[in-house]
Amino acid sequence: PAASAPPADSATTFDAELRLITAAKSELDKGRPQLAAAWLSEHAERFPGGVFAVERDAMRILVRCNQTKAPSAAHAFAEQHPTSPMVERLLRACTPSEPSTVPSSVDFPK
């Protein structure tokens, strides 16, 4: 009997997923969240349960936090995926920064 073929070319699928996620990350790193969102949407359409689904979800939260701080989304992700390497970045990006405690005008000695 012939050996059964693999269900899908998993290496090709992995490479295609990785290209989309890499493109999205590159756009985020360049400060272009709208383009990152487009790559992430394509990934979600083509690979809804893909190997990089968790990373996609994290990057979607980063895109959202780039527009409006969303600490609840970051905390929810951290609870669902506490070991993800993306948790720290999400919490930093999505949590509003503390207001400066430095007075607006400082008198320096002359």
Which characteristics define this entry?
mainly alpha; 61% helix
Map the helices and strands:
Blueprint: H1 10-29, H2 33-46, H3 53-67, H4 71-80, H5 87-94
Helix pairs in contact: 1-2, 1-3, 2-3, 3-4, 3-5, 4-5
Write a structural description.
- The chain has 110 residues and is mostly helical.
- Helices cover 61% and strands 0% of the residues.
- The chain is built from 5 helices and no strands.
- The protein is globular.
- The model has no long low-confidence stretch (mean pLDDT 87).
Question: Briefly, what is this?
Answer:
The chain has helices spanning 10-29, 33-46, 53-67, 71-80, 87-94. The protein has 110 residues and is mainly alpha-helical.
Please tell me how large the radius of gyration is: 20 Å
β-strand amount: under 5%
Order of helices and strands: HHHHH
Kindly report the average pLDDT value: 87
